[in-house]
């Protein structure tokens, strides 16, 4: 039954049919008949108030058995009376009911009203609105716990690229950006999609579908591969470029089952079923590994990898590939490396063997020259230090002497001399930093902040950060950001930057504690004389 085309409350409506209409509407909309009856009562009540006056408390009740409509005016017993239209004095109330007390309600039955066209139309609008609200509440309660499910529906309409889908017990929307590129739908088409969000909205769509969400592809594999449904095979990660290419990482809890082969299926039947649903999207199924390096190498397939260098602090990995594998590793418009990065959660940098060799040689030359200048040694000694893994003068100065003696050709005298030269160089650098800090006007309290080196303080001073409070006003990313961070050249992690900022702010909290202690002492001192005066006995005049 179309509620909007039926006048439920009208002049000639058979009262006995009200309950039948309510049941029919409830069945059609999938809600309780009681909710429809309550909506009718509110509609009749509104129409009756327009007839008898909106200032009156007129209430309507529909008998749940006979369908009879009862109208009554309610008056509250009050003392004093503030609203004569809705309240009655205690004296007048006792004339009607001797047992009446303040706060009670007295009802006066009103004659049935034959509503006019306008009142009937208003009543119908109220009923329609209340039924819609009840229907939306039912839909939300039914689907709020179904986020993450794949549902089937029929396209109801398509407007401006957005598709409205009939799910049988509700309506959902498939937005244009959640549809696979070059995919079109017409009314009546069957569609399968992933529920990614359900919201309690007063108007507009409540259920939101997606065909581009990574978990949509994961859900399709769960439907096609029984081993995934049974928990034998796990889907660890998914990355998609909708309509073009996707990568999915799988692992097996049973060593006798190949997870990749199980997902591919006999002659590719399982993966082809998923590809067909995703409009021909190419899918790379790779073996997941707990070892990040192995996982990333697998994720870059079909490209071959020669070497990887992990930087766990920066969550970054450098991948070295043969020259002929570079284009394959990067992929068209960087697609392969981008999907591998999304899949693994690591920032991936692709280098050829030639580029990596050149960079390594440049780093070797730079570090060797640094040791030559700082320690005043020849090329041979500098090269030996770099080869053994020394990358800074500080390492030479503070490393245990045994580590230096372990280098071939180094004796105790040479090792001690190198350490002394390293200490002298660091002392000279600190003196230079101190002079530069003085020129910049950097305060001494900035030097007390834990985690800052002399070079860092000079860099901050050149950037206008000259006091501890100046540093404390900054955020962690303002120091460590790779693009515009003040201390970006020192390659601080975000955690290290935040620790420096909190150390700079420590004195704020110390000052607050001191002020609170002083306040407490002042309060105690102010209370003491009063107590002493109260405790003294009065002295009589001679």
Compute the CA-based radius of gyration.
Answer: 40 Å
Question: Judging by the overall fold, what is the CATH architecture of the domain at 3-137?
Answer: 2-Layer Sandwich
- What's the CATH C level of the domain at 3-137? Alpha Beta
Q: Which descriptor suits the 3D outline?
A: flat
Structural class determined from secondary elements: alpha/beta
General description of the model:
The chain is α/β, with parallel strands linked by helices and 542 residues long. Among the domains are: 135 residues, 2-Layer Sandwich (N Utilization Substance Protein A, Chain:P, domain 4), CATH 3.30.1480; 67 residues, OB fold (Dihydrolipoamide Acetyltransferase, E2P) (Beta Barrel), CATH 2.40.50; 56 residues, 2-Layer Sandwich (GMP Synthetase, Chain A, domain 3), CATH 3.30.300.20; 65 residues, DNA polymerase, domain 1. Helix content is 47%, strand content 17%. It has a five-stranded mixed barrel with strand order 5-6-7-9-8. Strands 1, 2, 3 and 4 form a four-stranded mixed sheet that branches. A hairpin with a 3-residue loop joins strand 10 and strand 11. Helix 1 crosses helix 2. The longest helix has 42 residues. The radius of gyration is 40 Å and the shape is flat. The N terminus and C terminus are likely disordered.
């Amino acid at each position: 039954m179309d509620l909007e085309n039926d006048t439920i409350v009208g002049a000639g409506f058979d009262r006995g049919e009200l309950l039948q209409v309510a049941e029919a509407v409830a069945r059609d909309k999938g809600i309780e008949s009681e909710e429809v009856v309550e909506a009718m009562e509110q509609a009749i009540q509104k129409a009756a108030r327009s007839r008898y006056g909106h200032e009156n408390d007129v209430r309507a009740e529909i008998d749940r058995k006979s369908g009879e409509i009862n109208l009554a005016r309610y008056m509250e017993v009050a003392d004093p009376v503030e609203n004569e239209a809705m309240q009655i004095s205690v004296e007048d109330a006792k004339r009607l009911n001797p047992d009446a007390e303040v706060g009670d309600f007295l009802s006066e039955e009103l004659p049935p009203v034959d509503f006019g066209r306008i009142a009937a139309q208003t009543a119908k609008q109220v009923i329609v609105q209340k039924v819609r609200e009840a229907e939306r509440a039912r839909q939300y309660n039914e689907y709020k716990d179904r986020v993450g499910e794949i549902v089937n529906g029929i396209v109801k309409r398509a407007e401006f690229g957005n598709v409205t889908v009939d799910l049988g017990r509700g309506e959902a929307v498939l937005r244009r950006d959640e549809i696979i590129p070059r995919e079109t739908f017409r009314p009546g088409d069957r569609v399968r999609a992933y529920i990614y969000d359900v919201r309690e909205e007063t108007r507009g769509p409540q259920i939101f579908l997606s065909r581009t969400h990574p978990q949509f592809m994961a859900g399709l594999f769960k439907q096609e591969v029984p081993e995934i449904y049974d928990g034998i095979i796990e889907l660890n990660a998914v990355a998609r470029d909708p309509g073009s290419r996707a990568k999915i990482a799988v692992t097996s809890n049973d060593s006798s089952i190949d997870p990749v082969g199980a997902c591919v299926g006999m002659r590719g039947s399982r993966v082809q079923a998923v590809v067909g649903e995703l409009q021909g999207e190419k899918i790379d199924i790779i073996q997941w590994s707990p070892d990040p390096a192995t996982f990333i190498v697998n994720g870059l397939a079909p490209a071959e990898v020669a070497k990887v260098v992990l930087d766990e602090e920066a969550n970054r990995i450098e991948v070295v590939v043969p020259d002929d594998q570079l284009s394959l590793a990067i992929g068209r418009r960087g697609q392969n490396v981008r999907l591998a990065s999304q899949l693994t959660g690591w920032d991936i940098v692709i280098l050829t063997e030639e580029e990596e060799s050149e960079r390594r040689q440049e780093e070797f030359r730079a570090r060797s020259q640094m040791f030559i200048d700082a320690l005043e040694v020849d090329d041979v000694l500098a090269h030996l230090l770099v080869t053994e893994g020394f990358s800074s003068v500080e390492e030479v100065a503070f490393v245990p002497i045994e580590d230096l003696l372990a280098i071939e050709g180094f004796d105790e005298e040479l090792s001690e001399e190198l350490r002394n030269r390293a200490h002298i160089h660091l002392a000279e650098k600190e003196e230079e930093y101190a002079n530069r800090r003085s020129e910049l006007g950097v305060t001494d309290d900035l030097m007390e902040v834990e985690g800052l080196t002399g070079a860092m303080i000079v860099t901050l001073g050149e950037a206008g950060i000259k006091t501890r409070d100046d540093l404390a006003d900054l955020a962690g990313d303002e120091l460590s950001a790779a693009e515009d961070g003040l201390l970006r050249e020192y390659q601080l992690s975000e955690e290290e930057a935040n620790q420096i900022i909190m150390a700079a702010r420590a004195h704020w909290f110390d000052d607050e504690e001191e002020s609170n202690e002083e306040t407490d002492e002042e309060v105690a001192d102010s209370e003491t004389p009063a107590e002493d005066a109260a405790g003294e006995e009065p002295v009589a005049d001679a």
